[in-house]
């Protein structure tokens, strides 16, 4: 539990208490306004305690995550025995990197190039070759 008493965690604890007290105070203020005849304040009187509950929920999740992250790992179970003729099973990584595949541009099915597409590709090539140019400067 001493890991939850670092300066950063003390700031989080204090922020949680201040936010919850502020939300509950605002909720009580809205209740008094609603009792005074302001009908819309009934909705706000319900919202503010929900906000306080959300602050407590997020704080509790962060505390649990911090406690889990620094707990020692559980001891590993016994190693699986390798029997004769059994192939070793490779461990699959939990997160895999994406595979980049180089794709060739698709060729039209009938073999004829699209003239409009070719003109657009020339325009893009010109823009790439002239980085400071504006589209209106294109000579073609």
Could you outline the blueprint of secondary structure elements for this entry?
Elements: H1 7-35, H2 41-70, H3 115-129
Helix pairs in contact: 1-2
Please describe the structure with a list of short key phrases separated by commas or semicolons.
about 140 residues, 3 helices, mainly alpha
Oligomer kind: single chain
**In what range is the share of β-strand residues?**
under 5%
Ends: how far apart? 71 Å
Low-confidence stretches: none
Instruction: Name the helix and strand elements from N-terminus to C-terminus, one letter apiece.
Output: HHH
Structural class: mainly alpha
Helix content: 40-55%
What characteristic shape results from the CA principal axes?
Answer: flat
From the alpha carbons, calculate the radius of gyration and give it in angstroms: 32 Å
How much is the average pLDDT? Answer: 82
State the helix count: 3
- Biggest β-sheet strands, sense, barrel: none
Number of strands: 0
Explain this structure to me?
There is one protein chain. With 140 residues, this protein is an all-alpha fold. It has a domain at 2-70. It has three helices and no strands. It has helices at residues 7-35, 41-70, 115-129. The model has no long low-confidence stretch (mean pLDDT 82). This is DNA-binding transcriptional regulator of glucitol operon. The chain crosses the membrane at residues 9-29, 41-60. Residues 70-90 are annotated as: Disordered. Residues 79-90 have a biased composition (Low complexity). It comes from Micromonospora marina.
